[in-house]
Amino acid sequence: MVISADRDASSAGRVLVVDDEKPLAQMVATYLARAGYAVAQAHTGPDALETARTEHPDVVVLDLGLPGLDGVEVCRRLRAFSECYVLMLTARGDEEDKLAGLAAGADDYITKPFSVRELVARVAAVRRRPRPTVAPAEPARVFGDLVIDLTAHEVRVGGDPVALTRTEFDLLAALSARPHQAFSRRQLIDIVWDPAWVGDERIVDVHIGHLRRKLGEEPTAHIDTVRGVGYRMGAR
Prior knowledge:
The protein contains 8 helices and 12 strands. It is an alpha/beta fold. The strands form 3 sheets. It has a 5-stranded parallel sheet, sandwiched between helices. It is globular, with a radius of gyration of 18 Å.
């Protein structure tokens, strides 16, 4: 592990770069440090988890091909104790890698080879994601057996808590804020990711699929597909 910037002096946030290609990891870390981030590095799966526990990063840049534990398993275990954003590094054109990373809890991905400046921009984009601002007295949003408590950052179905990633929660918050509106993929990307985000808009479909599986479709459909448009909340 190498700290590439003074964590206390960094105002941009903390980033953990995980890649077994040490020269690449160092180059990425250098650019992120120049952008004002406190940066730590790890080069194996087990080291990544240990560093994440001690450094509490806001964002993890995570390569899929790691010794010890691969990136998918690291992401899965990371989700057990951290809500940090995960930006997965995948091989160009490998759709299965992208889907596996997103299924494990990654928030976004970038394909190799990549521009380091683009990666820094992606990190900045996830850090800029708007968090729901809720007055303390605002009641929970209720859709049948689904309860969304933005103040507590908690979701329950039939009284049982549902563990969501930050991206999944943000998507649900965006949809539930305007339950009668049909959102396009692009609109949801602008709200949840960033208006400057560039990539495959089907990333929305993947996260919606995860949400549906976690929330369940009975006794009501919580998220509707609007043909030719996108998605909206199901009936209350």
